[in-house]
Every structure is written in C-alpha cells, then in structure tokens.
Amino acid sequence: MWKKQIPNISPVILTVLTIMITYLFMITRTTLWDRDEPRFTRAAVEMLETGNYLVPTFNGQLWADKPILVYWLMSLSMKIFGTNEFACRFFSAIGTSISCLLTFLIGKRLFGAKEGLYAMVILSSSIMMLAVGTMATADGSTLPLILAAMTVFVYAVTSKLRYYHTILIGIFMGLAMLAKGPIGLLPLPVMLITLWFDRKDYPDFIKKSLTVSLALAIAIIIFLAWAIQANKATDGQFLNTFIGKHVITRAIKPMEHHGGNFLLYLPYYLPVIIGGFFPWIMFLLGAFSALIGNRLGLKPGKKILLVWIISIVIIMSLAATKLPHYIIFIWPALALIAAAAITAFQKGKLNEQDLNWLRRGNWFFVPLGTLAGLGFIGAPFFLKISALLIPAIICGIILLSMTYLVTYYLYHNQPVSAAKIAFTGMILFHIPYILGVLPVIEDIKVTPTIAKAINKATTSNISVATYKFREPSLNYYLGRNIKELSDQKQVVEWIQQKESAVLIIPIDEYENIKQNYVDLPTELLISKKGLNFSKGKKIELLALLCNQGTK
Fold first, then answer.
1. Residue 550: what pLDDT?
2. Helix or strand holding residue 156 (H, E)
3. Going by DSSP bridges, is the β-strand pair 57-58/482-485 parallel, antiparallel, or unpaired?
4. Per residue in 511-544, pLDDT tens?
5. Cβ pair 330, 401 in contact under 8 A
6. How far apart are CA 330 and CA 189, in angstroms?
C-alpha cells in the first residue's frame, strides 16, 4: 500500500520544497521596500526592544494599522535569524509555500491530484504571489490561514459538514483576524453563498448556516481575547483607530489615494487580475468557459470556485479603498481553474467554444507581455542608468520571446505547450532579474546607504530628524526613532541646538534654507543620489551632523 502512495506524494513534497527554497532565496535579494515593509518590520523590532508583545508601536508611537499576529511572527523569526531581511520576510515565504500546498489539497478534492499539482505551480509563479510571498507584510501570513479555513470547508461540503470542521474553520479565521482584522473573515461569505446554492431545502440551509456561524463566533472570540486587552492597555485608542480608521473609514472612502470616484474605480480589480495573474491570465477566459459549462470536473467544484471568485471581487469592489493585494484570496481559485483547464484539454474534454476562449486569452496576455518586455528594454534609457542596460534588455527579450511563443501555441490549440513555455519563461526571466536588475536597483536606493553612514559616524544616542523626506525604511535601518520637522524654522532650530544631532534632508531643500539662514553649523556625513521608490522620483539626500559636537 505504501509503495503505491509514494509516487503520488513525492511530486507534491518536491514541488512544495522547491517553492519554499525558491522563495526563501528570493527574500534575501533586496533590502526592504518603502513603505509597507519597513513599517511592519520596525514595529516588530520595537516589540523586541521594548518587550511589549501586546500592542505594536512604530517610531515609539501606537501603530494600529494591523492586529498583532504578523508582529509576533516577525519577532519570532528575528529572535532566530537576527534582525535582517530574511527574518522579516521569512513567514511570508513559508506562508506562500503553505498556501500552495493547501491549493493542492483543494484541487485534489475538487478535481484530482494532477490538477492540484499544476495549480501549485501556477499559483507560485504568478506575479501577485511572487510579490506577496517575498515581502514583509501581513498578506503572506494571512493567506494560508484563510485558505486553511477554505480547505476545511471544501472537504466538509464535499462530504458532510461536521462540528469539528466548524471548530477548525473558526480557529483559522480567528488567527487570520489576528493577522489582518476583518479580512480574516473573507471565507465566511463564500461558505454561506455556497451553502445556499448547494441547499437541499430551506431548513437544510439554515442548519448548515448556523453551523458555519458558530465558526464566526469562535473567530471573534479568538480575536477579542487579544483585542480587548490591547484596547484596555491603550485606553481605547487601539480599536478606535483600527476599527474606526483602518476598517470603517477604508470601507466608505478612499484612504491615502488608494481609490477615487466610486463608479470610475468599480472595475479596479479587473486590471489587477489581468496584471497580477500574469502569465497565467491567458488561460482564464477558456477556463471560465469550461467551468460554467461543467467540463472541468465535479459540480461542487463549479459552485465553490465561482462563488469564491465572484463574491470576493464584488465585496472588495464595493469598498472605497482599493489595493491590488486586497483580493489575493482569489488567487488559489484562479490557479485551480487554470490548472483544471489544462488537464481538461489533455483529456479531450474541452469543446470548440472553450478552445476559442482559450485563444482569446491572448487579448490580455499579448499586450501585457509586450508592454512588460518593452518596459524593461526602455527602462535604462528612461531612468538614465547605464548599469541597468544589459540585464534589463535581457529581461525584456525573454518576456517578448515568451509572449510570442505562448501566443503561437495558444493560437494553434496547444495550451499545454503554451503553459510549459510560460513557466520556463518566468524561470529564465528571473535569472537576469535577480542577478542583474535587482543589484542595480539596490545601488540607487538611498535610505540603506544613508542609514549605514549615520550609524557608522554616530552612536545610537544621537537624535535624528528628517525634513521633506519621510520613509519608514530609515527607522528600520537606523534602528532609531526619528523626529519629523515640519518647517524651515524647526530645521534651523534643530541644526543650532546645543546637543549633537543628525539631519536628513533633500539637497534642494537644504539649499533653499541656506539662502535664508547664514549660521548653519553642519558637517556632511554623506550625500546619496538615487530613487525614492515609494514616490517614483529621483532624489539626492544629505545626512548632516549638526553642531559638530561629540559623536
């Protein structure tokens, strides 16, 4: 019996390990990206420094953007691996690997082991997952938790929903809420709508809905077990800020320019899916055609996957604040139907209509692949960075070649060959990207270099302030709290204070101040030209030692 099982299990284990090793390697290739990554990581560092594991802080102040779990995880990995990028991003990479494994389990249940295995590969190599899995944010840790809840539900609804299923779903959603608040409850509407369509009669739906609702109660209890204590410790500030600002306000109006006119932004997530699911977007039109026509597998799979994708897109589209990763929960479902479409073609189950829609996948794939390829080729000339020329052009040529070959094979009804080309192309693309493009980009990042020079020239008790430059990566790489100055008068007062201090300021702003004030006792520690990636603007940043006192 065991010998028969090994061939089925071995490819899954090998694929998961390959994904894990790949992601763990990729998370070491860059310093942190402003602005989200260093906010999370600095809060985790402050948690370690202060010993306050109840409430997150950033720059010494209450940080109520997200609940506590992601900071617990980051602080744990920092204790093991030290304070570095690998530790900060460790659980995102591990979480992505777990998400791929859970996607396999769902695929195996709904379609078969082959479909599940293909879905793992598709999910792990899509652009959005490559971003989520290599960044120190809450998404990489949240996705496996909500996907675990969904996995339990799929196994339950395709057999019999029992109370231990409910308990497990509640625990996973509760942990997901501790990672990202109400986002952790996203499986719930999927479950309830699926139960409605799968009902035998109305009493049957009510009974099952009440069972699932018990999971909601468990999840809320888990969340409140921490949130009540955190709120008490902050005199009510935490929930007021988190629920009031980061949940309710984000839902009813755009925050930080992430959204706009409601009707104009209503289709926001359509281009997100097209771009974020690259290169596998080419299969989605044909996959939906086959799914709706019951040609991908068992009927429960059709109901669950359609409800999963459509309900989440609608819910997140109705929220005023919109960001691409808000719908990352549907990525495993997209990977599953794309994988099922490939295997359905191999089995000869797709009809002519499905094949026509597969070919129409080029409508999205060709423009996107072409623009991406030309974008890489043109980037060195636009940014005027000569060192970027060769690796960027190689990346662009690979993308253009992949786009042409995939288009050719799709047009000639060979989706399996197209899938092989797409996967191979993504691997080949990442070789010059990781070895050539990323090192050049690292050279034009300003904050790690600035922070290193300041830490080398001053001790940790020297105060640091910034003017007209606010990037949280400074907090992380300096390892200090930073004062933000609001006007030129404050800048002059900071420079002329009796104690030694450091000022970080763009060179043009400093030149403007020097025109109005003569006595500015400063010593240049470092000047760094580069790119402010969060704003997409070139900048030359100065680090000045003020008053030239003791270092």
1. 42
2. helix 139-157
3. unpaired
4. 999 988 877 889 999 999 999 988 888 999 999 9
5. no
6. 13
> Taken in order 309, 314, 319, 324, is the CA torsion positive or negative?
positive
Q: How many Å is the maximal CA-CA distance in the chain?
A: 86
Partners of residue 503 on adjacent β-strands? 465, 544
Tokens representing residue 181 in the block: 């608040």
The helix/strand/coil state of 549 is coil
Amino acid at 248: I
- DSSP H or E segment with residue 392: helix 389-411
**Start-to-end C-alpha separation, the chain:** 71
Q: What is the pTM of this model?
A: 0.94
CA atoms of 312 and 269, how far apart (whole Å)? 10
Residues 93, 69 contacting (CB under 8 angstroms): no
Residue 8 has pLDDT above 90, yes or no: no
The CB density around residue 10, as the number of other CB atoms within 10 Å, is 10
Q: Under DSSP, is residue 538 helix (H, G, I), strand (E, B) or coil? A: strand
E strands along 237-315, which residues? none
The predicted model gives 380-397 an average pLDDT of 93
Q: How many Cβ atoms from other residues are within 10 Å of residue 68's Cβ? A: 21
312: left (phi over 0), alpha (psi -120 to 50) or beta: alpha
Judge contact between 37 and 88, C-beta under 8 A: yes
State the SS3 of 403-465. Answer: HHHHHHHHHCCCHHHHHHHHHHHHHHHHHHHHHHHHHHHHHCCCHHHHHHHHHHHCCCCCEEE
Q: Is the predicted pLDDT of residue 62 greater than 90, yes or no?
A: yes
Rounded CA-CA distance 62/14 in Å is 43
Q: Cis (ω within 30 of 0) for the bond into 29?
A: no
32's tokens = 């942190």
Residue 313, helix vs strand vs coil: helix
pLDDT at position 193: 95
Residue with tokens 């499905």: 354
* Cα–Cα distance measured from residue 549 to residue 378, given in angstroms and rounded to the nearest whole number: 47
